[in-house]
Task: inverse folding
């Protein structure tokens, strides 16, 4: 049941700071798995899940979901004409190289998701009315996929953010936020820097201690339940479940501890502290995401791009000079996105490009940041194996549910579901390639 | 009333058996007669079809709709005033009474059999405070590494907002380790106390050399290092070599902190967390091309804690403000205080009250510059300060057991406790004390000691008595660890870590059934201190005396007097008035060039000080919207146009007659939070007033409504844009309620300054400087005039903010009731159920009878069934 998997890894020892040499060796899957181990410390647990073996000659599909949270100027994004021969716009021109491999959407929004900036935490969950008192989020698209897919990768998913306030796109089934990793340097180290033998031993010992401790505290709920009402017992059960889940994750990372991490020859990225450099920061993040995908360290990534540093210019009040300042920033964002798509496109896997197997969703929760509108969202989907190359235009007044796109994406990942969040079907007009 | 009674009884019995029968004749008759014209299946005005609304009170959605019918009829808002045939007062009374009884019965049935306040985990703020108090580690920072909590009904203290997943759990394990690492003593003596006098000059040499700062000696330029002039100084290294920066000169700084200038007192970065004493000396001066002259007044210097990251190079490290300190004219003022510092912390400085200037690219540099400066004499740092060793955090875990050196040769088969080698990871020159081997706590009878130590620790950490059988489980684990060769410290640490991750610690558990005095103690302490009860409070719970009203009242007073009560003020206001969002917008630099971080911090300080004043002086709820005093410092006084306030300290100032301020309503903080940094809109501000101050949150807008696109080009005002929107009848009915308070607040801009005309970028008249610092360039114009008049839904008209304040303040019970609801939700972690309404009304009545003071409200709430019921 072997299948060939091209990975850009170097098998021989290479010093970390040596120049990047792409070594392309077809590896049997099992060989790869043996090589692709990694040491995990606790902070990265959010993304860990037990690996279910799913041998089968299935094309590995990937999903990357990106939100930039302060809107995208609609006048420079949306094409006028629907269909395949739409005229490119200032922003879409930046992605022209991938025109045939992407679909642009208009007239879409997340049903019921209102509340201006509050909507940013619902971009991948589609949960209505985040601004209301008793709001509780639902599971996010990426976590739903990670939960459903028995994945062979070290990380079932990565939740990443380029933010100052700890935002995230990823939420668990109970609506708890998964804190996103914000440092490209740390992500790189976790993914690719191998611990020493004694560190591995210490990690394994720590993981075992952790599991035995969790076992102990989980048992404490039994005693407490005796004195609690049934509703409270359910709440205590949520604690118990979280303890068991963590224990399972520790168990699986114990197995990964002994497997070496994939080696890449790219240098360790140096984080940028200045938040105004959010375009350069995004590029750093894209670079490490590309490495994670090509080494098959994960197949599912969410990325929250917080552009709060330009928040006040998004309230441009229709001033031309502010709009042009904002446009320059947003063009920078599209340029680095184009670079990311290029890099995925340049990597080949069994004759296909990595981009052909990676859905890249890019969009925003704000149709117009100036007025805090949450309808008519600028969104595009590149790659991943769809019949792309078109502008799918829906009704501007009565928007089409964006969550339908999420169902299409889940099905493309190989998940048999007809619904997700507020959606009950796939996206009209978007067909599998 | 006589007619209503049988119907009420019938209705109650219907609901008690939870069957959904047809509505009794009477409400139906009322609805048919007065409501069905508009709320029939065809018209469905406001989306409500009363014929389809079944009296099935068990369904939450239908229940909520019936509550609305009840409320709108009771308030007289429905049927609309314009209708010719209005129901009579007895008709209204009969309907609302009958509905009220039905709703009450249904709500009680819903809540029967469950505790009113659900078991919930600690918020991350509560978690951090609890650890701080449990271990006497007053400044340990944990909450920033915990996942953020949700919010329900306005606060994070509700069990619906406090889900838990494996993500939280993993972070709790880490936080427990971080706590125990800091708590456990690993050295025979306290770390050597560092005593340093740190001049700022050496750390800002690059701006001394280019004229953004000058060296001063005896209130004049330092002759050994003249101010930068036509040429900048070169070679900081050579100056450093001849000790130019350490000769006792003061550093006069003109430049404000910015992206490329972060002044730190970087002779030191903390290696040993703990209490440190800081002393700093500041004064101000006017600089005139080389001469030091008396200053324009008292300036404010800022000190902050900077958490250095990685090797600590460069700026941009996270920091939090320690405070603002007065720098009087040519008169050095000494400021001394203690603070807790964490690993890798250093101290940062800023010329907070100065406007940004840059001399580095100016011809003639400092010798051509005239303007204000702040002189820094030095910063003294002393610490870590330990009154006892081992510290209280260690004693909490290991009592008085002795520390001794662990010698592997003498301890065959026992693994030494893990120790991380302490290193100075930053560029700071201070180094760790020499290592003296592995020191750890010693026990000659480990299991006996473990049992004794856990018997003391567990009840304290769990905030209630702990059964011997539970303790035995922990001791058994210690035994297990010892048997596999763990040291005494490591074995006990295992148990302590488990305790800190256990549900007993992480959750506020209130056993169902009888009232429990420990739960009451926790409720009180998590309300006023946002943390665990102290020993005194737990003892009162143990003896049962806390159930005595007089004792409980006394404890409330004691807790309020403690400095930990500030946590309540900060946490409550952070959520109720959304002060947590103060920094979420950056005012547009062209429109609001006078905005500064100092102003923003002063705004928050004002609102907190004002709330504290309301509590301390037991002032009534009309003060939420109106007052004859304000709590301001010089910075705010200038913004508010109040004369005679000097310096950075917030103090109580009588409100001048011509100053349209007073109450939270006009606080710059609130006005900033309800604007977007560039423009204001009556809608979010009106919503804020309705929701937060009056407790009547407006309905969210219907879907697919195009929002108003703000425009600051100077041609149109937000009111003109909004008027188009309001022309739509379906929008108008809600906006008639939402907008009026927002209209009045249009007199205030996005940073809380008062205005008669909008600022504009684009067309408009030249703007006068007003109180804006002369150093700041002005490029905005004055656009259209502000119209702050409006009409309340009850048709009372107001011309502006002052009249609106009086109208709102006149209805004190409405304001008091809202505050009572907010306090109740916050302190009990549950929403206000329909069946709580009578209790809330009774509470408000009791408080009103005693003068209506806010401290009285706190007291009556704590004594009320709302607070005391589980």
Result:
């Amino acid at each position: 049941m072997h299948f060939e998997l091209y990975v850009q890894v170097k098998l021989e020892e290479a010093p970390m700071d040596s120049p990047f040499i792409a070594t392309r060796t077809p590896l049997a899957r099992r060989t790869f798995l043996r090589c692709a181990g990694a040491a995990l410390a606790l902070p990265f647990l959010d993304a860990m899940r037990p690996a279910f073996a799913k041998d089968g000659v299935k094309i590995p599909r990937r999903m990357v979901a990106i939100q930039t949270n302060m809107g995208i100027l609609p006048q420079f994004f949306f094409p006028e004409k629907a269909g395949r021969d739409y005229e490119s716009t200032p922003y879409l021109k930046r992605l022209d190289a991938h025109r045939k491999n992407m679909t642009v959407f208009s007239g879409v929004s997340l049903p019921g998701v209102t509340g201006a900036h509050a909507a940013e935490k619902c971009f991948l969950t589609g949960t209505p009315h985040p601004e209301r008192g008793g709001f509780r989020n639902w599971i996010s698209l990426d976590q739903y996929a990670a939960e459903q897919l028995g994945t062979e990768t070290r990380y079932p998913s990565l939740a990443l953010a380029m933010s100052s306030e700890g935002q995230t796109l990823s939420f668990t089934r109970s609506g708890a936020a998964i804190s996103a990793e914000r440092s490209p340097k740390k992500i790189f180290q976790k993914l690719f820097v191998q611990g020493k033998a004694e560190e591995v031993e210490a990690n394994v010992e720590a993981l075992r201690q952790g599991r035995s401790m969790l076992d102990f505290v989980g048992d404490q709920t039994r005693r407490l339940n005796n004195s609690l009402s049934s509703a409270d017992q359910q709440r205590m059960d949520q604690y118990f479940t979280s303890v068991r889940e963590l224990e399972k994750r520790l168990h699986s990372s114990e197995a990964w501890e002994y497997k070496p991490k994939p080696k890449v020859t790219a240098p360790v990225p140096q984080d940028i502290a200045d938040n105004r450099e959010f375009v350069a920061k995004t590029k750093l993040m894209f670079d490490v995401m590309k490495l994670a995908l090509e080494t098959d360290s994960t197949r599912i990534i969410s990325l929250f791009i917080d552009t709060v540093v330009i928040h006040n210019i998004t309230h441009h009040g229709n001033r031309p000079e502010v709009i042009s300042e904002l446009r320059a920033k947003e063009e920078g964002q599209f340029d680095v996105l184009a670079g990311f798509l290029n890099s995925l496109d340049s990597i080949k896997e069994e004759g296909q490009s990595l981009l052909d197997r990676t859905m890249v969703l890019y969009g925003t929760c704000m149709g117009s940041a100036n007025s805090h509108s949450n309808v008519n969202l600028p969104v595009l989907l590149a790659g991943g194996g769809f019949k792309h190359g078109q502008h799918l235009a829906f009704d501007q007044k009565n928007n089409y549910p964006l969550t339908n796109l999420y169902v299409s994406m889940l099905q493309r990942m190989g998940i048999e579901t007809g619904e997700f969040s507020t959606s009950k079907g796939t996206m009209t007009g978007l067909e599998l390639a | 009333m006589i007619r209503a009674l049988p119907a009420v009884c019938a209705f109650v019995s219907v609901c008690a058996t939870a069957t959904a029968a047809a509505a009794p004749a009477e409400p139906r008759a009322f609805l048919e007669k007065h409501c069905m014209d508009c709320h029939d299946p065809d018209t469905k005005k406001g989306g409500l079809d009363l014929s389809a609304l079944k009296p099935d009170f068990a369904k939450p959605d239908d229940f909520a709709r019936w509550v609305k019918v009840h409320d709108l009829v009771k308030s007289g808002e429905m049927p609309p005033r314009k209708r010719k045939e209005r129901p009579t007062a007895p008709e209204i009374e009969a309907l609302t009474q009958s509905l009220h009884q039905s709703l009450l019965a249904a709500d009680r049935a819903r809540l029967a059999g469950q505790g009113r306040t659900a078991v919930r985990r600690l918020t991350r703020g509560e978690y951090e405070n609890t650890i701080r108090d449990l271990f006497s580690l007053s400044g340990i920072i944990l909450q920033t590494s915990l996942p953020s909590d949700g919010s329900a009904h306005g606060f994070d203290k509700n069990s619906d907002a406090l889900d838990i997943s494996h993500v939280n759990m993993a972070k709790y394990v880490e936080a427990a380790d971080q706590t125990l690492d800091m708590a456990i003593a690993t050295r025979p003596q306290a770390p050597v106390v560092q005593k340093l006098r740190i001049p700022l000059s050496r750390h800002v040499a690059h701006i001394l050399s280019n004229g953004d700062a000058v060296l001063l000696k005896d209130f004049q330029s330092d002759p050994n290092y003249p101010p930068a002039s036509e040429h900048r100084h070169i070679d900081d290294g050579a100056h450093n070599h001849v000790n130019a920066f350490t000769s006792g000169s003061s550093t006069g700084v003109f430049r404000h902190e910015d992206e490329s200038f972060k002044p730190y007192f970087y002779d030191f970065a903390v290696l040993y967390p703990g209490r440190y004493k800081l002393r700093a000396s500041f004064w101000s001066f006017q600089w005139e091309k080389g001469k030091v002259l008396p200053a324009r007044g008292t300036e404010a210097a800022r000190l902050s804690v900077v958490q250095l990251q990685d090797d600590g190079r460069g700026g941009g490290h996270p920091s939090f403000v320690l405070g603002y300190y007065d720098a009087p004219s040519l008169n050095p003022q000494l400021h001394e205080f203690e603070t807790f510092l964490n690993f890798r912390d250093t101290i940062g400085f800023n010329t907070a009250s100065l406007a940004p200037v840059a001399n580095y690219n100016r011809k003639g540099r400092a010798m051509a510059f005239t303007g204000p400066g702040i002189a820094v004499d030095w910063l003294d740092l002393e610490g870590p300060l330990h009154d006892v060793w081992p510290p209280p955090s260690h004693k909490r875990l290991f009592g008085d057991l002795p520390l001794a050196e662990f010698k592997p040769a003498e301890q065959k088969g026992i693994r030494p406790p893990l120790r991380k080698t302490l290193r100075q990871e930053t560029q700071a020159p201070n180094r760790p004390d020499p290592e003296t081997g592995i020191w750890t706590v010693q026990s000659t009878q480990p299991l006996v000691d473990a049992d004794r130590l856990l018997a003391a620790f567990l009840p304290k950490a769990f905030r209630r008595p702990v059964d011997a059988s539970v303790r035995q489980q922990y001791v058994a684990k210690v035994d297990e660890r010892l048997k596999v060769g763990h040291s005494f410290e490591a074995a006990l640490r295992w148990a302590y870590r488990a305790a800190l991750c256990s549900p007993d610690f992480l959750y506020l558990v209130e056993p169902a059934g009888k009232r429990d005095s420990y739960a009451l103690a926790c409720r009180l302490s998590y309300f006023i201190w946002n943390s665990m009860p102290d020993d005194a409070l737990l003892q009162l719970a143990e003896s049962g005396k806390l159930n005595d009203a007089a004792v409980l009242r006394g404890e409330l007073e004691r807790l309020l007097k403690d400095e930990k009560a500030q946590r309540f003020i900060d946490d409550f206001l952070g959520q109720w008035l959304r002060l947590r969002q103060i920094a979420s917008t950056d005012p547009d630099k062209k429109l609001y060039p006078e905005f500064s971080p100092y102003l923003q911090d002063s705004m928050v300080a004002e609102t907190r000080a004002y709330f504290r004043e309301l509590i301390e002086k037991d002032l009534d709820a009309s003060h939420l919207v109106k007052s004859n005093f304000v709590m301001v410092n010089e910075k705010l006084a200038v913004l508010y146009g109040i004369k005679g306030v000097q310096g950075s300290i917030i103090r109580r100032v009588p409100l001048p007659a011509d100053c349209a301020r007073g109450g939270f309503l006009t606080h710059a903080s609130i006005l900033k939070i309800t604007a977007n940094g560039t423009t204001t809109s009556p809608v979010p501000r009106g919503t804020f007033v309705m929701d937060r101050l009056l407790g009547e949150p407006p309905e969210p807008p219907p879907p697919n409504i195009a929002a108003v696109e703000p425009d600051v080009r100077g041609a149109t005002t937000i009111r003109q844009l909004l008027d188009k929107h309001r022309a739509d009848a379906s929008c108008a009915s809600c906006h008639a309620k939402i907008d009026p308070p927002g209209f009045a607040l249009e007199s205030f801009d996005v940073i809380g300054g008062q205005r008669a005309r909008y600022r504009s970028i684009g067309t408009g008249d030249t703007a006068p400087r007003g109180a804006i610092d002369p150093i700041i360039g002005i490029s905005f114009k004055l656009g259209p005039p502000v119209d702050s008049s409006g009409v309340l839904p009850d048709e009372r008209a107001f011309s502006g903010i002052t009249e609106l304040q009086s109208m709102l303040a006149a209805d004190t019970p409405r304001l008091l009731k809202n505050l009572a609801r907010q306090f109740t939700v916050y302190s009990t972690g549950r929403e206000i159920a329909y069946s709580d309404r009578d209790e809330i009304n009774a509470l408000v009545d009791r408080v009103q009878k005693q003068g209506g003071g806010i401290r009285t409200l706190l007291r009556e709430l704590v004594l009320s069934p709302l607070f005391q019921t589980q």
About this structure: Chain B touches chain A through 77 residues (CB under 8 Å). Residues 1-25 of chain B have pLDDT under 50 and may be disordered.
